[in-house]
Structures are given as C-alpha cells and as structure tokens.
Amino acid sequence: MTDLAPLLARITDKRDDLIALTQDLIRIPTLNPPGDNYRDICDYLDRRLSAHGFTTELIRAHDTPGDSEKYPRWNIVARRDGAQKGDCVHFNSHTDVVEVGNGWTQDPFGGDLIDGKIYGRGACDMKGGLAASIIAAEAFIETYPDFHGAIEISGTADEESGGYGGVAYLAEKGFFDPAKVQHVIIPEPLNKDRVCLGHRGGWWAEIETFGEIAHGSMPFLGDCAVRHMGAVLNKFETDLFPAMALRRTDMPVVPEGARQSTMNINSIHGGQKEQADDFTGLPAHCVPDSCRIVIDRRFLDEEPLDMVRDEVTGILDGLKSSRAKFDYALTELNHVLPSMTDRNAPIAATIAGQIQKVLGKPAQFVASPGTYDQKHIDRIGKLKNCVAYGPGILELAHKPDEYIGVDDMMVSVEVMVRSLAALLLPKD
Ligand SMILES: [Zn+2]
C-alpha cells in the first residue's frame, strides 16, 4: 500500500486555497436563467487548471435551449494524464446557480466566510463541491505525479434547467464515452457521508380540457372546460394518488416521502386571462372554453415510462367515454428516465469504502427525489459507473443564506483524494 500520509498532509495545507477558490467561484454570478457569466467562470477554471498542468477545452453548446450570442452556453473540460495508462476519473460539476430569491441576510455573491461557513448562492449547490474536487485533484497530482490513468474535471452549464446545454451536449459529443472515461463523480451536495446512486424519473405534461364559450348567465348554452378539469382532478384524487401512494421503490430515495411515486400539479388556468395587478376593472361573464394544467409526475425505477403515461391517458379516455361532451388534449413537455447505479459498481464501492475510513462509520447509499446530470451520463453517454458525492447539506440548496461548511468540504476532499489513490495508484 502506498503511504498516504504525504497526501493527507498536503490537503491540510490547502485549506486556505480551498476557501479562496470557493469564494472566487461564488463571486462569479452564474445565474440561470438566463445563463449569466458562463464564459467568465470557464475562463477562471481554465486559468486555474491550466496552471496545474491540465489540458483544457472550452466548448459552447450551440443551438441548445437558451444558447444565444448574449447568453452562450459555455462548458469546460480539463484533463490531466498520468505517467502510465489506467482508468480516467471524471469530476463533473455544474457551474450555474438558481435565482437568489428573498430572505437573505448575507451578500448572495459575496462569498463571505463567517464561523467556518462560506455564504452565497451556489455555495452548497454546487461551487463548494467543484472547489473540493479541484483541490483534491491538484493535491493528488502534486503528491503522485506518476499516477496511472487520468483525471478530468468539467464545469458545465444549465444543470438547473435540465442540462441540455451542459452535460447532455458533452455526452452527445462523446465526452462521456466509457472507452475514454471509466468513473464519474458528481460533487452535488448530498452530504459528506452519503453516496448518491441515482434519481427518480420525471414526466411533465400539459393537459387541456375543452368547452364552449357562452354567456355566464346561461351556462347551459355553453360547456364549462373548468368543470371538465374538475372531473379530471377528482379522478386523480380518487384513483391516481391512492394508487401511486401504494407503489414503493427499492431505490434508497431520501427523504422518505419520495420513496414512492409522486405527482405535483404545477399550475392550473381556465377561462379569462388573468389581468395585471394594477387592473381595476371587473370580469366579463363567460363560460370558459379551455382549462389547462401542467403535471409533474416523478416515477420510480420499477415503473416503465409507458405505464406512467398510460395511467394518465387511461383516466382521460375513461372520462371521454363516461362524461358528456368531455374532450381533452395532452402534450408531453419533457421526460427523464430514472438512473440508478449499482451500489457495488466500482465508483460507488470505492467512495463508500473511503467514507468508512474517514468518518469511521458506514456510508449511506441514497437516491435523489429530483433528477440531476447523471441522467445524461447514463442515457446519452452510456456510462453507468457514475455517482453523486459531495459536501454540503442538500436541504440548503436553493434556499436563502445558502452556505457550505469548510470542515465538510475538507472531509469530502479527503474522501475524494483517497478515492483517487484507490483507483489511480498501482496496487503493489
Ligand atoms: Zn446542483
């Protein structure tokens, strides 16, 4: 076994560098939407990683959603080859952050360090994780320049809006070809003692019910689309929600409430357009001829997508045959299949083993209720050996006063460097 003492000493020495790097990343406001400053953060990472011997490539995801001359979707992939052939370990982090929102007591782009916590939008989700992976890679390379294989670090756009201008684009271009990359770690904030194996699927659709416009004083002369939608929602309550609640998954989804199928009704609108807040007029009297909802159905590894779709269309078709004048249209908006890496897969087992060593307790295997970029690495890249592991408290993501704990980041850095040593140093 290689003596890891010099490696562990080196990461201790890099604590201040880790803090400064995290602060620098937070201070580049990469808000998405619209996709601000992607080029700036890629240039920053380019300078940083080039100075540490990485070969870098900046890739713009042309013609993906949101890409324009004003808001180009820039990504960076950096690679450092070792002295000999071996596996490639790839760390993928998204560089975008969600809107700031209200309720902050700290500067959201200040990156201030207070009592061991660095504050800012994206501190936890996931610039702290990106910084941790960079420090881990640099410490490992400086200590063992003759390592086997390669280390890649990518900073990608648009995860918060689906990842099409980021990881999906890179996967289509072959950056996650299993012949080139063997292990992927996504340092999303799943907590320092957990290995996240994957996520549930999602299916988003708009349903519209139709009616016939008439004077509101004589609704019998028209047909009310909102009442038809009421019948749909009633069927969801009596049939769909109870059926979904019975379906449990073997996926270790956290929190517990997400270990079953779920569905959110994102929006509902029927009839007259909503007016601006400063409009002072009264409504006209009409029977609505259209009502729309958007549904957000999250499904399990055990549920085929066709079944998820058929269950909803079955309810709608049932109403069509049983309810007078009922008619509908369903438009699928998007879907994402579940992704689930085996807990015995090399990257999952390696990280879990190192968590046990560093924290002295078994790692918890979890799955995420929502999706993240693993879906593209799995479905487009066809690379299964991928997990999420990174510092930060999941519940702080997207909240006011988001922060990352420096001690948590240091634990993750240690787990990451030990994992690199396990995968990229010769076993003698
Ligand atoms: Zn994230």
Automatic annotation (TrEMBL):
Its cofactor is Co(2+); Zn(2+). Keywords: Cobalt, Hydrolase, Metal-binding, Zinc. Pfam families: M20_dimer, Peptidase_M20. Residues 198-317 form the Peptidase M20 dimerisation domain. InterPro entries: ArgE/DapE, Bact_exopeptidase_dim_dom, Peptidase_M20, Peptidase_M20_dimer, Peptidase_M20A. One of its GO terms (molecular function) is metal ion binding. Belongs to the peptidase M20A family. NCBIfam families: DapE-ArgE (TIGR01910), PRK13013.1 (NF009558). This is Putative succinyl-diaminopimelate desuccinylase. The lineage of its organism: Bacteria, Pseudomonadati, Pseudomonadota, Alphaproteobacteria, Rhodobacterales.
